[in-house]
Design brief:
- The complex is a heterodimer of chains A (about 350) and B (about 170).
- Chain A is about 30% helix and about 25% strand.
- Chain A is built from two helices and 16 strands.
- In chain A, strands 1-2-5-4-3-16 form a six-stranded antiparallel barrel.
- In chain A, a hairpin with a 4-residue loop joins β3 and β4.
- The longest helix of chain A is centred in the N-terminal third of the chain and has 75 residues.
- The radius of gyration of chain A is 28 Å and the shape is globular.
- Chain B has about 170 residues and is mainly alpha-helical.
- In chain B, α4 packs across α8.
- The longest helix of chain B is centred in the last third of the chain and has 26 residues.
- The chains are: A alpha+beta (about 350), B mainly alpha (about 170).
- The interface between A and B is large, with 52 and 50 residues.
Chain lengths: ~350, ~170
C-alpha cells in the first residue's frame, strides 16, 4: 500500500513537472514547441476535415433551428444597408483616391502601397477563454507572425501562429492583444453668431466668428467645424532686400499659416483587449490641457511607427465611454470597434512588418 | 499487417489518443459552431473527467494529461496549461469516485459534473497565473453552468467509452 502511494505520488509529481517545463518552454518562445504544434496540425487537419464533412448536416440543422429568424432579420437589414451604402460608396471611393494621391504626392505612407493577402475565416477558438479565429491562408501567401488583419470595417487583430495554408489570428478583444493607437480629438470650438446691431462678446477660446442673418443653424455632424473650410490665414512677411537668396520681385512673399487651432488634435495611447464580454480600452492617454477632454465618438486609429506591428491610420473604432482618473493619470477610453468580430468572413492580412521585425542580413 | 494494427490497438494509451483525436475534432468543428447560450461546450474536459471515473485517480491523471496536451496543440494558450488542469480533473474525479461506497449512475453523473465545474474554474485560474488578464470574470459563471450541464448529460456514455479505451485487454487480443 505504501509502495502504491509512493508510485502514485511520483506519477503526479512527474506530470506536474512535465507541465511546468512545457509551459516554460512555450512562454519563452521555444522553436521545439512551435515545430511540435505545426507537426500536430499536419496530422490533425485531415481528421478535422473529415469530422467537419460528417457533422455538417447536424451543424446546418442546428443553425436552422437556432438562427433562422436572426438570419432573416439580418438579411433584411443588410439589404437596407446595401441600398444606403451604394450612393455613399461612390463618393467615398473618390475621396479615398484623392487622399491616396495626396499622400503619395507628399511621400507619405499609405495602405494602398502595402501588399495584402485575402483569406477566409474557417473557424474560431474552441476555448471559452481565448479570442482567436483561424484563416485558410498561411506561409504560402507570405503571412508571418505579427501581421495586422483587417476586414472591410477596420482592424480585427494580428496573426499569432502561421502554418502552411493556415494561420491563427488573435482578435482585438483578446486580453493578450495590445497596439499603439491614436485618438483623434476635436477641440471645443465656440461658434459666435453676430447679429447685426448687437456687439459680439470677446472670448479666449478657439472661436470662429461668422456674421449671419438672425437665423439659427444647428449641425450634428461630429468633427465638423463651421467655417473650417474657409481659406487659411495669410500673413505677409517683409523680406530683407540685402538677402542674396531673396527673390528679386516681388519684395513681399506670402507665407501660409494654417489655422492650427481648428485642426483635430491627436494623442497616442495603447489599445488593450479585455475579453469577449468587455470592450477594449485605450490607456496612457496624457491628461494635457491642449488635448482637452476626449469626446465620445472620437475616432481611434492605429498609430503606426517603426516598431508598431500595424501601419498608421487603420480604423479601429470610436470612443464609446471616457473614464476619468484623478491626478496626472490620463483617462481610460472604452472603444467600440468598427468591425463586428462575431460575423467575420473574408479578411485581409496586410503583408506588413515593422523595421524591427525584418531579418538582418549578415 | 492487420495483426500489427491489432497489436497496436492493445495499447490502451494509444486507444485513448485516438479517442482524444476524435473528441478534439468534434470540439474544433461542430461544438465550436453549436454554442448553447454562447458558450463552447468542453468535451475534452468531459473526456478527462470520465477517464478518472472509469479507471481511478492515477490513470485519470495520466489520461487527463494526454487529453489536455492534445487540446493544447490546437489552442493558443501555453503548451501544458490544459494538460496540467485536465490532469488535476482526471485525478480529482478518480479520487472522489474511490470514496463512493456503492457507485450508482447518478453518483457518476454528479462526480463528472463536479470535476467539470472544477476544471472550468481551474483553467482560467491557471491562465491567469501564466500572465493573462481578463479571463477570471463574472462571465465565468454561465460558462461553468453550461459546461457542467452538458457534461452531466454525456457523463455515462463517455465514461463507458473511456472504460473501454483504457481497459487492459480487449476483444482484439
Amino acid at each position: 500500500m505504501v509502495g502504491y502511494a509512493f508510485t502514485r505520488r511520483r506519477t503526479i509529481l512527474l506530470l506536474l513537472l512535465t507541465s511546468v517545463i512545457l509551459i516554460t518552454l512555450d512562454l519563452r518562445g521555444s522553436s521545439i514547441v512551435a515545430a511540435t504544434r505545426s507537426a500536430f496540425g499536419a496530422v490533425f487537419r485531415p481528421v478535422e476535415s473529415a469530422t467537419r464533412v460528417v457533422t455538417r448536416p447536424i451543424q446546418n440543422t442546428w443553425n436552422g433551428i437556432v438562427n433562422y429568424d436572426e438570419v432573416l432579420e439580418e438579411n433584411r437589414r443588410l439589404k437596407d444597408l446595401v441600398a444606403f451604402g451604394e450612393g455613399a460608396n461612390i463618393a467615398a471611393i473618390a475621396t479615398v483616391r484623392e487622399a491616396q494621391e495626396l499622400l503619395a504626392l507628399n511621400g507619405l505612407p499609405t495602405l494602398a502601397g502595402i501588399a495584402s493577402c485575402t483569406a477566409q475565416v474557417v473557424g474560431q477558438s474552441p476555448s471559452n477563454f481565448t479570442q482567436t479565429v483561424e484563416i485558410n491562408r498561411g506561409t504560402e501567401c507570405g503571412i508571418k507572425v505579427g501581421m495586422p488583419v483587417l476586414n472591410a470595417a477596420g482592424m480585427i487583430g494580428k496573426v499569432t501562429n502561421v502554418y502552411n495554408r493556415r494561420a491563427v489570428v488573435m482578435l482585438i478583444t483578446d486580453p493578450g492583444y495590445s497596439l499603439a493607437v491614436k485618438v483623434v480629438n476635436t477641440p471645443p470650438t465656440t461658434t459666435t453668431t453676430t447679429i447685426p446691431g448687437v456687439p459680439a462678446e470677446s472670448t479666449t477660446t478657439t472661436t470662429t466668428t461668422t456674421t449671419l442673418p438672425p437665423t439659427t443653424t444647428t449641425t450634428t455632424i461630429k468633427g465638423f467645424t463651421p467655417g473650417a473650410t474657409i481659406a487659411p490665414n495669410t500673413t505677409l512677411v517683409p523680406i530683407d532686400p540685402l538677402d542674396p537668396d531673396a527673390p528679386s520681385a516681388p519684395n513681399r512673399s506670402p507665407i501660409t499659416v494654417p489655422p492650427g487651432a481648428d485642426l483635430p488634435l491627436r494623442e497616442t495611447g495603447a489599445l488593450e483587449g479585455r475579453g469577449l464580454s468587455r470592450v477594449p480600452v485605450v490607456r496612457f492617454i496624457e491628461n494635457q490641457p491642449r488635448f482637452g477632454d476626449v469626446a465620445v465618438g472620437s475616432p481611434v486609429i492605429s498609430a503606426g511607427g517603426a516598431t508598431s506591428l500595424a501601419p498608421p491610420d487603420i480604423v479601429i473604432g470610436t470612443v464609446s465611454r471616457v473614464v476619468p482618473r484623478s491626478g496626472t493619470l490620463g483617462p481610460i477610453l472604452e472603444v467600440t470597434l468598427s468591425a463586428n468580430l462575431e460575423n467575420l468572413n473574408f479578411v485581409r492580412v496586410l503583408l506588413y512588418q515593422p523595421i524591427t521585425e525584418r531579418p538582418t542580413t549578415p | 499487417m492487420i495483426e500489427r494494427v491489432f497489436v497496436l490497438a492493445e495499447n490502451r494509451y494509444l486507444r485513448l489518443v485516438l479517442l482524444g483525436l476524435l473528441f478534439l475534432s468534434l470540439q474544433t468543428t461542430i461544438l465550436n459552431e453549436m454554442r448553447p447560450f454562447g458558450v463552447s461546450v468542453e468535451v475534452m474536459l468531459l473526456l478527462a473527467a470520465a477517464t478518472g471515473l472509469a479507471k481511478g485517480s492515477e490513470t485519470g491523471a495520466i489520461a487527463g494529461f494526454v487529453v489536455g496536451l492534445l487540446y493544447d496543440m490546437v489552442l493558443t494558450t501555453p503548451l501544458g496549461l490544459c494538460a496540467i488542469v485536465f490532469s488535476a480533473v482526471g485525478y480529482l474525479s478518480g479520487l472522489v469516485h474511490s470514496f463512493v461506497h456503492e457507485p450508482t449512475w447518478w453518483s457518476r453523473i454528479i462526480i463528472v459534473s463536479g470535476a467539470s465545474a472544477a476544471g472550468t474554474v481551474l483553467l482560467p485560474l491557471a491562465f491567469t497565473v501564466t500572465g493573462a488578464s481578463g479571463v477570471l470574470t463574472v462571465g465565468l459563471l454561465p460558462i461553468v453552468i453550461v459546461v457542467t450541464g452538458f457534461n452531466a448529460l454525456l457523463a455515462l456514455p463517455v465514461s463507458w467509452l473511456c472504460g473501454w479505451a483504457l481497459s487492459e485487454r480487449t476483444e482484439f487480443s
